[in-house]
């Protein structure tokens, strides 16, 4: 069955791979599933046709036959459940990998998004100078804990899993801040994720859209 995802017609990040379709593309590449992409403009994302797929008017969405999904956690989990390669067979190891997916989205991503908000949307506020260091320290608190848990291992729990895919995807947003480099094992962890051929293909595919001629 054909898989179709949605992505920004033009991503605000200019193709740095931070738009969340990249993590869905990455999951599909890891499991070897071909997919199509429907590009949507910011305006189209808020119109009824897209809102029927995504109640919050965002990307990405995922369509496969009569199934339509939104939320990258749910989409990546669905892909990982249906196809081999992203979740271990052992039931307990599988549950732990899923736990890491939730941890990435519920415990690590919020503080990273808060930092992005403080920098991008609140940069001109008079109180930003005082708030920014507090937000940065909240990110550091989480990274320190994650760094301690990862230790010297390559991945969070045994082999690469959907948990790592999601955690690396979330951490990637910090690359330009320099904060990630304060935790060399996490910086190396992210680099290991980026070096996976499936990630490289996903990144290249979204970059091609964002640097190619405008969609007609
Ligand atoms: N929790 C959602 C977040 C989706 C999200 O924030 N998508 C962004 C792009 S990465 C978006 O569509 N932003 C435009 C908007 O919210 O209007 C997920 O993981 O799928």
Describe this structure in words.
The protein is of the alpha+beta class and 216 residues long. The protein folds into two domains: 3-85 and 198-211, Glutaredoxin (3-Layer(aba) Sandwich), CATH 3.40.30.10; 91-196, Glutathione S-transferase Yfyf (Class Pi), Chain A, domain 2 (Up-down Bundle), CATH 1.20.1050.10. Helix content is 55%, strand content 9%. The chain contains nine helices and four strands; from the N terminus they run βαβααββαααααα. A four-stranded mixed β-sheet has the order 2-1-3-4. A hairpin with a 2-residue loop joins strand 3 and strand 4. Helix 1 runs parallel beside helix 4 (72-82), helix 1 (21-31) runs antiparallel to helix 7 (162-171) and helix 7 crosses helix 8 (184-194). The chain is globular, with a radius of gyration of 17 Å. 32% of the residues are buried. The mean pLDDT is 96. Bound molecules: glutathione. Glutathione (GSH) binds at residues 19-20, 45, 57-59, 71-72.
Give keywords.
single chain; 216 residues; alpha+beta; Glutaredoxin; Glutathione S-transferase Yfyf (Class Pi), Chain A, domain 2; 9 helices; 55% helix; 9% strand; binds glutathione
């Amino acid at each position: 069955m054909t898989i179709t995802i949605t992505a920004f017609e033009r991503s605000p990040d200019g193709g740095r791979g931070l738009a969340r379709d990249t993590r869905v593309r990455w999951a599909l590449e890891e499991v070897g599933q071909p997919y199509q992409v429907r590009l949507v403009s910011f305006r189209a994302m808020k119109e009824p046709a897209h809102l029927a797929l995504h109640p919050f008017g965002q990307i990405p969405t995922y369509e496969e036959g009569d199934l339509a999904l939104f939320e990258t956690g749910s989409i990546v989990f669905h892909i990982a459940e249906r196809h081999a390669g992203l979740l271990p067979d052992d039931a307990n190891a599988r549950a732990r990998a899923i736990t890491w997916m939730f941890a990435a989205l519920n415990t690590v991503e919020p503080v990273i998004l808060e930092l992005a908000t403080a920098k991008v949307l609140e940069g001109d506020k008079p109180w930003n100078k005082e708030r920014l260091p507090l937000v940065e320290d909240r990110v550091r608190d989480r990274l320190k804990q994650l760094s301690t848990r990862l230790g010297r291992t390559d991945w969070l729990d045994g082999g690469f899993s959907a948990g790592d895919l999601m955690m690396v995807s979330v951490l990637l947003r910090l690359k330009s801040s320099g904060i990630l480099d304060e935790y060399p094992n996490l910086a190396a962890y992210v680099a290991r994720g980026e070096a996976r051929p499936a990630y490289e293909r996903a990144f290249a595919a979204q970059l091609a859209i964002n640097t190619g001629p405008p969609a007609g």
